[in-house]
Design a protein that fits this description.
It is a single chain. With 348 residues, the protein is α/β, with parallel strands linked by helices. The chain has two domains: 105 residues, Enolase-like, domain 1 (2-Layer Sandwich), CATH 3.30.390; 226 residues, Alpha-Beta Barrel (TIM Barrel). The strands form two sheets. Strands 4, 5, 6, 7, 8, 9, 10, 11 and 12 form a nine-stranded mixed beta sheet that branches. The protein has a three-stranded antiparallel beta sheet with strand order 1-2-3, sandwiched between helices. Helix 5 packs parallel to helix 6. It is globular, with a radius of gyration of 19 Å. The protein starts with a strand and ends in a 10-residue tail after the last strand. The model has no long low-confidence stretch (mean pLDDT 95). InterPro entries: Enolase-like_C_sf, Enolase-like_N, Enolase_C-like, Mandelate_racemase_C, Mandelate_racemase_N_dom.
């Protein structure tokens, strides 16, 4: 049994400036697995700059992948995809395709295969668009009108004075009650992050994702205990060598919350295990996409429904940022996503 792999490209309506540079499109592969007339689907959208394999490596792994028997359990899926451990985006896509195949055959949502569904709806944040302060303010106002209670924007690509102007414009646009989340993508030094977060204290930021480089666990730890906002570990989650130190139960933990990107972590089951470890250590977790396609967003939403706790909004309002993508059952309404009553992923 082989996979069917189809390349596709999604173009952003507006480029997003990150600490790693501008992003204007995402390139990936739709993966389908068919057996006994039942098809399961997954999206592989690697982002080498974030730490996954390249698109070329993902495609090579997907084309090489072979499976002799259709799995019928999550455990059998884990065995089947072990050969893809070096290519997390490809592994994620194949896991997703096999999970949906099993779920459809059982007549259930994929989420029920992962564990008890603890919530059927949950809050998500809006990712703001705009090059300057006025553009971000307009995007923030629109998000609030749509019902979002949490907004997020990328930082660390501009001088701190400019970042402060942009964030002030967003705070004025959303008012005092909406949470503002920032993502530095590891683009600040520890000294710059300390200066930035202290200087922005009056804006009452909710959380800063990955303020320093992914390997700098001790820098995260020091920032967490001086910053006026919560600290989230994102890119650091991809470094298996530092995860034990990051997730250890410690009153001086390096982060308040971990960010789960299933496409970068190698799948939903791996991500759920990390969330469970974090929960046991007193840390929170929320799910975000890797700016993936609709199937991957649906998969991430299924993961969000089974996490141990629901203290944080998830970063799943991203498919709407692409051109030509039609609304689907996972399109946020009123700042929330609701799991559909369906089988498989529940998305066309």
């Amino acid at each position: 049994m082989n996979l069917h792999v189809s390349p596709f490209t999604l173009r952003l309506k507006k480029p997003i400036q990150t600490a790693r540079g501008p992003m204007d499109e995402r390139v990936g592969f739709r993966v389908s697995f068919t057996a006994d007339g039942v098809t399961g689907r997954g999206d592989a959208m690697p982002m080498a700059s974030f730490g996954t394999e390249t698109p070329e490596a993902a495609l090579a792994a997907l084309e090489k992948f072979d499976i002799t028997t259709a799995p019928s359990t999550v455990e059998e899926i884990a065995v089947a995809i072990d050969q893809l451990s070096a290519t997390p985006a490809a592994r994620h896509a194949v896991e997703c395709a096999l999970l949906e195949h099993v779920a459809i055959r059982k007549g259930v949502l994929v989420a029920t295969l992962l564990g008890p569904v603890l919530r059927s709806h949950f809050a998500v944040n809006a990712l703001l668009e705009g090059d300057d302060a006025s553009g971000l303010a307009a995007s923030a106002e629109k998000a609030v009108q749509q019902g979002f209670k949490v907004v997020k924007l990328k930082v660390a690509a501009r001088p701190l004075s400019v970042e402060a102007q942009r964030l002030l414009a967003v705070r004025r646009a959303v008012g005092p009650d909406v949470h503002i989340r920032i993502d530095a993508n590891g683009g600040w030094s520890e000294a710059t992050a300390r200066s930035a977060l202290r200087g922005l204290e009056a804006l009452r930021l909710e959380v800063c994702e990955q303020p320093v480089g992914s390997h700098d666990v001790e820098g995260l730890r020091r920032l967490r205990h001086m910053a006026p906002c919560r600290i989230a570990a994102d890119e650091t989650m991809l470094l298996s060598g530092v995860l034990p130190r990051l997730l250890e139960k410690d009153p001086r933990a390096a982060a308040d919350v971990i960010v789960l990107k299933p496409a970068a972590l190698g799948g939903l089951v791996r991500s759920l295990h990390l969330a469970q470890q974090a929960h046991a250590s007193g840390m929170g977790a929320y799910v975000t996409t890797l700016m993936d396609g609709p199937i991957a967003r649906a998969a991430a939403a299924h993961l969000a429904s089974v996490l141990p706790a629901a203290d944080w909004a998830h970063g799943l309002s991203t498919v709407e940022l692409f051109e030509g993508v039609q609304p689907d059952p996972f399109t946020p309404m009123g700042g929330e996503i609701t799991l559909p009553q369906a089988t498989g992923w529940g998305v066309p």
